[in-house]
């Protein structure tokens, strides 16, 4: 069975994605320190829209200044940032791609040298030099996620993705290991998932039924368990408030850590959910044309591409032309990456990935 990679996908909100390729939200450190869009970030993202990605997602964009997770992060926490986002969303859409921003708060993962104050967390964490949020601050955090979504809609974005993965603040609330709160946001899984539910409910209520809304979750690492993520995912689906679920698996075909004896791989566990009208995308070691086809054939609606999107701005066009397309082998030269739209800052960041840059 071969799914047509260029078959349009209609989300429940009515938004149409022209093909089955989404650009992963990739950290790159190339925006300005005040959160404003840089020319380098603009070039990197708009080149991917030009290269055929049906949905272009920004890097994680923080909704509060104290939630900044890394130097050079693109922000969405203030109206002062609107001009850059309006320009970016307009250009992405001019190529027929959906423009989506990822809403983020690093929580205890905000480095002191970046935010110049103690990081915040559901509970005190000496290890991370982080203090517990007061109840009032939790309410403000919820409201700031919602306000950022409204700001994004006003900038012309087609939608937002709420970042609940990779150990950032919403993961910290979801995790029974990290979250030791004794109020309505801690304890039971229902309480730990309350903040995420209130954010998605609030965004849908204010931004309306025609605004694209997704949530990113990771079922392993950072104190998360696959069994709990499956429950949270099903609850998000059942509310009818989200249009897509984005699951970051690191490797789609690995055995689940929680169930090492399972006959099902991680992706097969995820596919057990009853998705109704909610679309599913996954990320995790999807690098070649054949990988893309295998993921779609397994029942996933669209693929999220990271590494291969860095190597080829036109990865979707390459794969749609040649289903057996394989990306250039690493390591690649700095000149090659510059030609693919990466700034020197982004290239230096990629040197953290072993064997990626010559």
Q: What Rg is obtained from the alpha carbons, in whole angstroms?
A: 19 Å
Q: Strand-and-helix sequence, N→C?
A: EEEHEHEHEEHEHHHEHEHEHEHHHH
Low-confidence stretches: none
Q: What is the CATH top level name?
A: Alpha Beta
Whole-Å distance between the termini?
38 Å
Number of helices: 14
Write the CATH homologous superfamily: Aldolase class I
The largest β sheet comes out as: 8 strands, parallel, barrel
The strand order across the widest sheet is: 3-4-5-8-9-10-11-12
What is the CATH architecture assignment?
A: Alpha-Beta Barrel
Provide a short characterization of the protein structure.
The protein is of the alpha/beta class and 358 residues long.
Description:
With 358 residues, the protein is an alpha/beta fold. The protein has helices at 39-50, 82-94, 112-115, 135-155, 169-174, 189-192, 194-207, 226-239, 266-270, 289-298, 307-311, 315-321, 334-339, 344-350; strands spanning 9-10, 16-17, 21-23, 55-62, 98-104, 119-121, 130-132, 159-163, 212-217, 244-248, 279-283, 302-305. The protein has 14 helices and 12 strands. An 8-stranded parallel beta barrel has the order 3-4-5-8-9-10-11-12, surrounded by 6 helices. A two-stranded antiparallel sheet has the order 1-2. Strands 6-7 form a two-stranded parallel ribbon. Strand 3, helix 1 (39-50) and strand 4 form a beta-alpha-beta unit. The radius of gyration is 19 Å and the shape is globular.
List keywords for this structure.
8-stranded parallel beta barrel, alpha/beta, TIM Barrel
